[in-house]
Amino acid sequence: MSDVGSGGFKPIGNRMMGRPEQKAPEQKLREVSDMYEKHFLREMMKAMRSTVKEGGFIQSNQAEKIFREQLDDQYVEKWGERGGIGLSNMIYDQLMNKFGVAMGVRAPVTKPVGPLAMDEKSNLALKPFQHPGKKQALSYRFDTESAPGAASEVKAPWDGVLLGKRSLADDQTLVEIGHDNGLKSQMVFKGGLSKVSTGEKLQAGDTLGFLSPEAKSLYWTIEPQSEPRPETVSE
């Protein structure tokens, strides 16, 4: 029996109807970020155009104004294709930090197990401070001289990868870790490192090094991994 309908046409099955494209959450956030940047650029172009006063005997007609707006839109699109002005990346990072966990594209931040053991017996004094040039970072100072017998092992706060290590002045050591939860840790302390290599995978609680007996403080700075490389913090 033919499947031709009464009107002489074959019915269109579901297989001919394409499903809407399912976009990944990261792509949705990126598109929203790009949209806001382009909106900002268009408003900036309008503001720049408004500063140019028309004069003389020839005035722009409506068609010329429409063409000028379309040309400005093309400029904005080209800027976006070439990477924009960086505003989109800033917005994307902020959206990811705020909604990434809820959207399932970023792991929730669990309680850290380092960089020093913090328990009832440690008696460590933890003081927040403002990292120079890092307004969006969280920075803490562990005072060890006021806690006799405090644990000397420096540990990885969360799972991640060792991004780098280097020796500083006054026998201090700097360590950077890129964590799986999207954060980055920088630790500066007086002491030495254990046998860990750059690029090595770390588990939360892994020993990174040891404080020297004369160490007074350990500095810990936390920031999103997309932020610029932090400056060295030292006494």
Describe what this molecule looks like in 3D:
- Residues 1-29 are annotated as: Disordered.
- Residues 46-94 form the Flagellar protein FlgJ N-terminal domain.
- InterPro entries: Flagellar_prot_FlgJ_N.
- With 235 residues, the protein is α+β, with helices and mostly antiparallel strands.
- It folds into 2 domains: 25-50 and 62-100, no CATH class; 124-224, Glucose Permease (Domain IIA).
- Helix content is 25%, strand content 24%.
- Strands 1, 2, 3, 4, 5, 6, 7, 8 and 9 form a 9-stranded antiparallel β-sheet that branches.
- The chain starts with 24 loop residues before the first helix and ends in an 11-residue tail after the last strand.
- The model is unreliable at 227-235 (pLDDT under 50).
Q: Kindly report the average pLDDT value.
A: 80
Q: How many DSSP-defined strands? A: 9
> Could you state the CATH homologous superfamily of the largest domain?
Glucose Permease (Domain IIA)
- Could you state the oligomeric state of the chains shown? single chain
- Which stretches are low in confidence, meaning pLDDT under 50 for 5 or more residues running? 227-235
Radius of gyration: 28 Å
Major sheet summary line: 9 strands, antiparallel
Give the total of domains: 2
Strand content: 15-25%
Under CATH, the topology of the largest domain can be stated as Glucose Permease (Domain IIA)
The gross shape turns out to be elongated
Broad CATH class of the largest domain: Mainly Beta
InterPro entries: Flagellar_prot_FlgJ_N
Protein name: Flagellar biosynthesis protein FlgJ
Region (Disordered): 1-29
Domain Flagellar protein FlgJ N-terminal: 46-94
